[in-house]
Amino acid sequence: MLFRFSFKAKGFDGREFLAGIEFKKFMIPLIERFYDDKILDIFEYWKQVEVLHQAYNIDMLFWANPPHRYPAGITKEYFRVHKVPICGMQHGGFYGSSNLGRTIKIDFNNCDYYFSYGFSKEDLEDDTQFLGKTQIIPVGSTVIKECFDKLKISSKDKTKEKVDILFPVALANDHIFFESELTNPKLFHLQKEIVDILAVFNGKKIILKFPVGKYMLHPLRPFIEDKYPGRFIIIDNVSFTESLNRYNPLVVLLEESSTPLNEAVVSGANIIVYNSAQWHALTNSASGLLRRRAVICNDVGSVAENLNDYMSKRMPQQFTDISNKEFIEKYCIYHGEPQDNIRQEIKHLLSGVMKKNREY
User: Fold this and answer.
1) How far does CA 244 lie from the centroid of its chain?
2) Rounded distance between C-alpha atoms, residue 324 and residue 146, angstroms
3) pTM of the prediction?
4) The dihedral of CA 112, 117, 122, 126: what is its sign?
């Protein structure tokens, strides 16, 4: 199958030049170069995993980050080939609350059991068709729980610096070997539209929060520096959680449903979420719960209108569930203590696997 796409590659001057190429012509040389450089390492790593497996008679494999990335993918593939049960762990806030389509197969095709932040199979709605035989087990997230605990404390801190808008800017794509505006052109176009909207609010303190260490390489940087030099506060040296601990934003603006949305819900700030029908759209269930706590916009015009209401000190609407407990438990930390839930489920899975091994 021939895939075609356009991308912007980095030039030596830090600017970007536009090129339209066939996907296979771009990727095949990269893949060949990767294997030329890594093939001996891959064989060696495979042998090390084999020695480990034989020495310890491993009954089950667990992964908590994307299972397709090198070298974790080699470990996963070894155990898959040897029919060792695999349990994966949710590692981002999109799953469950958004319709991810075929993207969700990257995780679910690489495990037999899947620990979620709180959602179950039924919450996948249209994505259920991509689930296969993977069993979803809600457990929560210890990392997000720790973030929530910190945010609950810092949300009461009256000394935090007040800002008008905090906008966490996502990466267009970090799954292949470069970062460019046309790896996800729709998202990049949206980001430029949002920056144009934010620039209108003269005299307002606005933070553009980039992923840690990514601003200089982000395709949005030339656009910001050329069109709006010095207009915004740019930060990329702290996590989004830490930025919420440091600042007290009137509004958190989100371009999609993701982990920052989960954290913003707990922060106490007003929230505006752009809900694109083109990518990562909220599921009906998540959207229904979130509307009790946040403004959900289906177009850029609505984003501008609601931001203007907040900047003019007009509340767009009254929310019925500021704590949003049901949303948090379904998509963030589930019930009880995530650490206890995870330990209990691991123990349960291992006991079942070991019993089958003994019977075999």
Assistant:
1) 17
2) 18
3) 0.81
4) negative
